[in-house]
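lol forgot to send this yesterday, sorry. struct tokens for the thing we talked abt
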């Protein structure tokens, strides 16, 4: 005989769904406190290790006036060049190379200047045997147009080129500017910056990615081992999702990351961007599926998952495209910038922010409805409180890290091209990278089956219709009270029906 749940005046038919008891059901308040203390301690330890680590990037600067003196050229050529610059010695541990330029102009009136000019770039490389290889000819047809924006004497930094991976030990860059012949203010000097990853940070990144990868593998095996005795049909929605998220976390930790330093190819870094975008989008999908799935036992692909995929799917597509689009173009031309193809960039950016806005609204509605319908039900209110509290902590820390990493410029146009060059310390990398790993580990522990699980029960707590409304969250142990087998709203006639 089917049971019924009366909710907001509507009669909803609820099936008798079996669910494996989670450790969450048998945890007391002090255990919750210990879980969150352990979570914070792990995050704090990651931040401490990051603070003690080396800076993420190393920078070498060259004055344009000094470069001209070496070539026996006059100071009047400072506005055009050409400037020939030899890079410091590079290795695969430097990962990538950026070349930036900062102009200093003779503007004593503190006026704002916005000047368009052209840059011609030639790149030659030298291997370990000092053989010269031409990477980009200076007469290449993609001579780039740049914007010089100045406020007073100092101007904004301009990215000249970016090499996504390094095959050679030394690079010789030849840069020439065009378009400064007739202007109001003269250029006093220009400083070139060679920026790359710090080899010391790269070693830390390799080790900690390996540590997180190994830990995730062990926890994934342990979590699957704890569920092996139960049919998958009996798993709760949190347990089903954790069985998906933990393998995705393995990809997020990138098991092929060392290939970046063993192969002279762009493929490992491209796959790393793909893995990270996939995990983050699945995490967004996980949140909305859990908040909706707690209220609904029938979760069909078309009616339940498809609408959510239509919201998160475009986020994944735009994330992957934005992460790989510039890398792919830079392979053919290191001077490529997203500003060259501004129209397509803004289209992707608009799609991303539209769908992230829709996601936030949808998630907010699901949270409100879940708390409205389930907050008075023991076990369900525990699941909601734990999920919401941990999610708020993760989102808050992520926002703080993002603001510290990018400042308010996270929404500006340069957040794509300068994405990997604005870390100020290893702490920002360790805190964000450790945050998501420790978040998954904490949920795996709390959502794992309890040792007190009862095997031969037919009605359990994954269905709101059978939540134990007359007992407290702490005192009632799963399957130990006959009240758990009663429907949520019983009519008076039910007592006489049997």
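and heres what i got for the seq, position by position
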């Amino acid at each position: 005989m089917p049971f019924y749940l009366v909710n907001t005046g509507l009669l909803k038919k609820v099936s008798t769904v079996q669910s494996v008891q989670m450790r969450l059901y048998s945890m007391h308040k002090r255990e919750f406190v210990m879980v969150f203390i352990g979570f914070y301690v792990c995050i704090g330890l990651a931040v401490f290790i990051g603070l003690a680590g080396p800076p993420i990037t190393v920078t070498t600067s060259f004055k344009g006036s000094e470069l001209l003196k070496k070539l026996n050229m006059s100071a009047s050529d400072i506005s055009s060049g050409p400037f020939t610059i030899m890079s410091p010695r590079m290795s695969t541990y430097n990962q990538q190379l950026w070349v930036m330029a900062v102009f200093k102009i003779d503007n004593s009136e503190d006026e704002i200047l916005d000047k368009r000019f052209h840059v011609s770039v030639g790149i030659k490389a030298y291997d370990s045997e000092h053989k010269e290889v031409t990477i980009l000819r200076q007469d290449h047809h993609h001579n780039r147009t740049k914007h010089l924006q100045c406020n007073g004497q100092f101007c904004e930094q301009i990215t000249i080129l970016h090499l996504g991976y390094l095959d050679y030990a030394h690079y010789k860059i030849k840069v020439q500017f065009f378009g400064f012949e007739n202007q109001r203010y003269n250029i006093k000097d220009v400083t070139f910056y060679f920026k790359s990853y710090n080899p010391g940070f790269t070693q830390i990144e390799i080790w900690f990615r390996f540590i997180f990868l190994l830990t995730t593998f062990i926890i994934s095996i342990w979590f699957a081992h704890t569920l092996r005795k139960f049919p998958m049909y009996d798993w709760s929605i949190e347990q089903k999702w954790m069985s998906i998220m933990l393998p995705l976390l393995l990809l997020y930790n990138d098991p092929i990351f060392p290939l970046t330093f063993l192969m002279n190819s762009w493929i490992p870094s491209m796959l790393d961007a793909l893995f990270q975008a996939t995990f983050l989008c699945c995490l967004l999908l996980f949140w909305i599926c859990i908040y909706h799935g707690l209220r609904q036992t029938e979760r069909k692909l078309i009616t339940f998952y498809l609408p959510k995929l239509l919201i998160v799917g475009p986020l994944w597509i735009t994330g992957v495209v934005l992460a790989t689009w510039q890398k792919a173009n830079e392979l053919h031309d290191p001077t490529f910038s997203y500003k060259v193809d501004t129209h397509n960039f803004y289209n992707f950016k608009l799609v991303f922010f539209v769908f992230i806005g829709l996601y936030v609204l949808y998630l907010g509605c699901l949270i409100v409805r879940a708390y409205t319908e389930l907050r008075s039900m023991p076990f369900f209110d525990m699941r909601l409180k734990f999920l919401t509290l941990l999610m708020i902590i993760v989102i808050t820390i992520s926002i703080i890290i993002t603001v510290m990493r990018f400042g308010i410029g996270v929404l500006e146009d340069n957040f794509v091209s300068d994405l990997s060059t604005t870390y100020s310390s290893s702490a920002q990398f360790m805190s964000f990278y450790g945050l998501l790993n420790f978040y998954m580990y904490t949920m795996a522990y709390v959502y794992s089956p309890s040792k007190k699980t009862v095997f031969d029960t037919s009605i359990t707590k994954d269905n709101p219709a059978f939540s134990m409304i007359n007992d407290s969250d702490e005192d009632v142990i799963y399957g130990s009270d006959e009240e758990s087998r009663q429907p949520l709203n019983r009519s008076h006639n039910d007592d006489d029906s049997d």
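The longest strand covers residues 112-126. anyway ping me if u want another try
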